[in-house]
Amino acid sequence: MKTAFEDIYDQYHKDLFQFIFYMVKDKQQTEDIIQEVYIKVLKSYDTFKGESSEKTWLFSIARHVTIDFFRKQKRKRNRIIDLFDWSEKGFLIKDEHDLPEEVAVLNDEMQQVYRCLDKCTMDQKSVIILRYIQSFSIEETADTLGWSISKVKTTQHRAIKTLKDLLDTGTTGRGEGTEVESQQRRGKA
């Protein structure tokens, strides 16, 4: 006899893995994050009230764990940055990681969309992934993110506009340097 957790795992693991993978773009980090999600699910399943579907509850947990991961990464990165003197040549450092193997087989247009998606805010990225990659309804997306339906619609509209602008201008993230380099070009560093 299957447990509730096994049912959730069987039904949603692939979609959950994809959702997190599109956010972090690293298979190992995705696996680590998904383990943390499942631990939180196991610990809190008995408190699940059924006010939303299991799917939206699960994806909401996944989103929060992923955001926590990014916060930890940012703190780590800031500690590392503090250790180095970036005054000379630091602006030349670029993140040139290729897209993971699983994504690399996609055609050039889709790769360009994914690179542009990385330039969107976390909220915009979450909405686009849930709505268009995971095929969530607007209501499911709102439940997952803990937002109103109008906020989802507004964020979706802005995300699509941002993606369209980035695609129209050919801004894909290749050869554009780091945030530090961008700030230096604008005279803010």
Quick overview:
It is built from 9 helices and no strands.
Question: What would you say this structure looks like, in words?
Answer:
The protein is an all-alpha fold and 189 residues long. It has 2 domains: 1-83, RNA polymerase sigma factor, region 2, helix turn helix motif (Rna Polymerase Sigma Factor, Chain: A), CATH 1.10.1740; 97-189, Winged helix-like DNA-binding domain superfamily/Winged helix DNA-binding domain (Arc Repressor Mutant, subunit A, Orthogonal Bundle), CATH 1.10.10. It is built from 9 helices and no strands. The protein has helices spanning 4-24, 27-44, 54-83, 101-104, 108-117, 122-133, 138-145, 149-169, 179-185. The N and C termini lie far apart (60 Å). It is 69% helix and 0% strand.
